[in-house]
Every structure is written in structure tokens, then in C-alpha cells.
Design goal:
- This protein has 631 residues and is an alpha/beta fold.
- The chain is 47% helix and 13% strand.
- The chain has 25 helices and 17 strands.
- Strands 11, 12, 13, 14, 15, 16 and 17 form a 7-stranded mixed sheet that branches.
- Helix 3 links the parallel strand 2 (48-53) and strand 3 (78-82).
- Helix 5 (110-123) packs across helix 6.
Length: 631
Amino acid sequence: MAFPLTDRQLKIVNHIDGALLVIAGPGSGKTRVLTERITNLLNLGKKKILALTFSNKAAEEISERIERNIDEELHDNVLVGTIHSFCLDVVMNRGNLIGLPSDLVIFESDTDKLEIMKKVVIEMPELKNSFLESPGKGNVLKNCLKQISNYKQNFISPEVLLDSNDEYEVEFAKVYEAYNNMMLSQRALDFDDILFYAYRIFVERPQIAKSYTRLYKYIFVDEAQDLNEAQYKIIRALCKDFENLMMVGDPAQSIYGFNGSNSDFMTNNFTKDFNPTEFKLIENFRSTRKIIDAAKKIQTNVDSNAVYPLEGELSVHKFHDEQKEASWILSKINNLITEGNEWIENKIMPEDIAIIARNRYVLATVKETLESHNIPVNQGAAARSIESESIAIKIFEAGLRVIINPYDNVHFNQILGLIKYKDKYNPSSEVSYLEMLLELDCERVDVDYTAIFNTVKMAWEILMKDEESFSKALKVMADYLVKKEITEEESTQNEQYLIQKDIEMWRDHWRKYCSQSVAGQRNLSHFRNQVSLGKTQTHDNLGVSLLTVHMSKGLEYDVVFLIGMNDGTFPDYRAKSTRELSEELNNMFVALTRARRVCYITYPQYKLMPWGSSKYQYPSGFIRKMGLEII
């Protein structure tokens, strides 16, 4: 049921010029006011608009809502995407202005980055210092990558370290710089580079930032409580001398502190830097009264007024152990689906139900129980990964990267290893890795992989003739490499079965990419980067959702089971500092307010420990804080 806009919501939607901060509690119509304000501005002829959010799924939802409300000719006037996808576009199109090469690709795999670090050691022996000669070199290389990542996330360049008074940092700057140079020699970026170089572009070339704010007359930031320092600095650099910036978020739902996010960037820094007009949305159009009252006891400083004239249901249930807890949940779900619930007017489907836990491992017993009784479940994440399992498609995918980027010797060498190429390959230095790949002698490919290599090579040749023939390339591999019938016995570890599943995975990625792009303008480089950004992932929402608190954010369900509510589990035993404990309160607030009508809180009195014995568990302090009676 869509409620009419309140007076406060209307003021936000009709706000035209000037910075705007909207503090929007759960169920208060946050996405609605954001999308309706964008729709209003577009219909008033306010030219182009940029909206940034934190997940591809949220970006898709916002885009779909806006497109339903505006004429088709206005669709191109709004760009909705994640901060990472926007920054990648900046780096790809303007990176040459700070000396970056063209046609960059993303190395998202830790394995690929580790290969680059190994090359740094091999090709620059002068760097074999205390960083790289320590025992357990593999861990040292991983630690170097972690340290580099930390510096990039804080926008600290090797040049800054070279000016340090710390001898360690000066020495490490050489490793850091060599890694960057090696990545760029491969025409490659890692994920940290996307924000790192975008920030450099805006700061070192402020006219570029101005060109974006001339193009986009209004900029929106959704879920602004999730901003970290790097992201806020990018937005501030982009919006220098620009006023039409709107941030929407809820400090009580700030739960990504482990990634450096902090709601202070929205409530303090944005307020100080942009002096926005501020609105608070406190009406909750989602949840029933009992759920809202309990949430207000978790976050006592949060205003939230119930709109539904319904009490709803909120109860706490204890069980002897996790198996008894899971069995009761199974029985309750069956009853809800067959008998319904007095607070829910429609028939309850599995998709209307979520089971939420603080951590993934808490969901294991209930997942096993539901699946063993044929209750369909999903785990909220993307239905498809980007990790191929079969040797054949690993070869194909590595070759795809070399076709896109002939400078890529990491994936060229990966192919040599996968096909067990005999003898060392010593190419001419003038030849690109793509030419080397196509010149490989099939007689020197291991006999077990010759047929696979020849077939994959046919698929590569199709793509080199026409980059939009991805489906045709996949079909060639399916026709030559997959038997028509695969028995149940073969289906677990059989290579052909894995090839079949991998081909289906890449077919889904390509299908999603085609739905997001225009025929005639598609290319493999853009496709591969969209895959790396997660924009081609499909989401599985069928069945009962089994979610961690962090995965549940932004979602809502008629019925929520909040399980494993024991002290040490939720709140997490590792939360010690004031800030960590505050974030645990936010986690509980988020979990509870995913429920529209009904919420069952459950916990076991005994848990089986890894060493085999059972240990008594206390109920979560959050249950006491809400003042709920335990059944």
C-alpha cells in the first residue's frame, strides 16, 4: 500500500536548489523521496542528474523506480550507479591526464595481485630487502599487498612515503611504487586504484571535477551513513564550489565500521562543508507497532512513529539447542505458509520470510534443516560468481583477458600453466602476449589438454572477429566440450559438468550485460570490467532468505526470524570498545526493522563447541534491553 506523501516528504521532493541532508529512519520512505525528487527535477527540465549508492542492487532498484515515472526520452538524463562504477568511468576516460595508460582493466583477484608482487621481486632484485627475504615469503608478499591497500585507501602515494621520517616507510615506498608500476605496465588496476586515481584526477585536475558538475546539475548520495573517508573526500573534491548535493541516510543504520564507514561524514563533515537544509523523516510506513517500540528501546535516541494502526507480533523463544531451534523454525514456516498469520492479509510465500543472524555460521543448522525438508532457500548473495571451476573455462577466461589486454602477461602465463605447456616459452620482445597466445604450438600442449585448447582457441578467434559474438563463442565450447547427457554420478566432479555450469554462468553474465548496454556499442573490455564491478551478477530471491545482518540491510519482509540471539554471538564477543558496541546496537536495530509485521526472536540454551562438548549460552542482552518476555 502506497501512502500519500507527507508534508515533510513533499518539501524534500519539491526542494530545487541548494544542499540537502535527509535523515531517514527505517521504513520512512527514503528511497521514495529520493527517486521522486529526481523525477520531479527531470520533469522540470533540470538536465542531467547523478545518483550514487553503495550496491548494484540498490542502483538497479532506484533506476527502475525513476524510469517508471518519467518519459523514455528522459532516461538518459539520469545516471545511477555505485561510487566505484562512477569512479572507474572517471579513471577510464580521464586517467590520461595524470599519466595513466588507456584501456585499463581490473585485476580483482588476490591471486592476480600476488603474481604482480612476485614479478616485482623477480624483476627488481634490489627490493629483496627485509620485506621480501623474511621466512614464509608468501605471507610477507600478502602483508605487503595489505599494507599497499591500506595506503591507497587513505590516498597516501609512494611519493608521500618517500618524504617520511620513518625509515621503514621510505624503504616500503620503493616496493609500493614498483607494484604500481608493474600493475600499470600490465594496463591493470586493482579495486583500491579505482578510488585512489579518481581522487587524484579531481584534486590534481580540478577542471575535470568542474566538467562533471557542469554536466550533472544535481548529485545525490544514497545510504550516506555508509560513506568512508576516501569516498567522502572524492565527493567533496567532485563537488567543490557546487551546492546541489543531496545526502540521504540514517546514522542508526551505520553498520560497516569494519570498512571505515562512519555516519559522521554525513552528519558532521557534510553539514560543515556544505551547510545543507536538513529534514528528518521519522514516520515508519513499514513495521507494526510492537516492532517499532522494540527498535526504539534498542536505539533510544531515534524518533520513529508508527503509521500502521496494527500491533503486529514480536516474541522471544528459547530452545535446548540449535537443532531444536531449527526444527521449531521449520514447523513455524510450514504453518505460516499453510495457515497464514492474523497480521498479514495476503497469502504468505517463502519469499516473504527471512531468517537473519549476526554471522553466517549461525545459519548453518537451520539451512540444513530447511533444505532436508525441501523448503526452498536463498542466501541473498549473487546467484552467480565470477570464479570458473573447470580448467577449460579458466583457460578461456584467461585468454579473454589477454584478448582485451595484450600487455597482460599474468594471464598469459596462467594459460601456459593450465595447459601444461612443455618447455619454457621464449617469445620475441616485440610480440604482444596476444600474438604469443595465438602462436602457441599445439604439439607442445599437454596431450590431456590439446582438444580443450584447440576448442577454446576457436572461441577466442570468434571473439577477435566480433567482440559481440560472446554467446556464439560459448556455444562453440558447449558443442565441442560438453556431452549431451551427464549422469547423476558424473555430475559432482566431472569436468564436463563443471564446463557446462561455467558456460551457463558466463552466459548469464553476458545476458545481463546485454540488458544494460546497447547493441553495436558492446565490447569485451567494458563487459569484463562490468563483471569485475559485480554489475552483471544476478540475484536469487526465490525461497526463504537466509541472511547475515549486513546482507539484510535495505531489505524488508513480512516475517523475520532473528536467530542465535545469545550473548557473545549477538552482540558479537569481539565488540569491546564504545564504538564497536554502538555498531552492534546499530546491527540489532537494522535486523529488527527488516520485519514488516511479524518478528520471532530465538536462541538456543546450549551450543555444540568445535571440540565436541556442549556449552551453556546466555540470552542476548538485547532481549533484556527490549524488555521482552521469553517464551
